[in-house]
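Minutes, project check-in
Item: structure for the 120-residue chain
Input as provided by the requester:
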Amino acid sequence: MKGALFLLAAAIAVSATPLPDARVPTGTYGVCGGGAAFNSAHLALVLNGDGTFHCLNNLDREEHVDVRGQWKVRGRQVELQAETPKGTWRERYTLDRGNPCLRSRQGLLFSRLCLCASCR
C-alpha cells in the first residue's frame, strides 16, 4: 500500500512539473527583417527544450535586460519567469496562430518576435 501511495505521489509531482508545449517551437526568436538595428546581439529570446530561456534586450539604453529562467505554456500564453537581483522578472507572450511568432503588449508598446529560422 505504501508503495502504491509513493508511486501516486511521484506521478502527481511529475505531472505538476511545467514542461514546454510541443506547439511552441524552441529556438531563437528575434525581429525578422529588422537589419543591423535588431540583430541577435540587441534583441533575442532563446527558448530551450528543457523549459529554460535566455532573454536579451539591449534596445533601451537605460534598462538592459539579460535574464535566464524558466518558461511554461498555458493555452496560447508563453510565460517567462526569472529571479534577478532586483526581484522576480516576468514576461508573457501570446503564440501567433499559424506563425512561429510570439507577441506581447505592455501598455502601448507592442512587440513581435519570430523564430529566426523561419525568417530566412
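Outcome recorded: The helical segments are 2-16.
No further action items on this chain.
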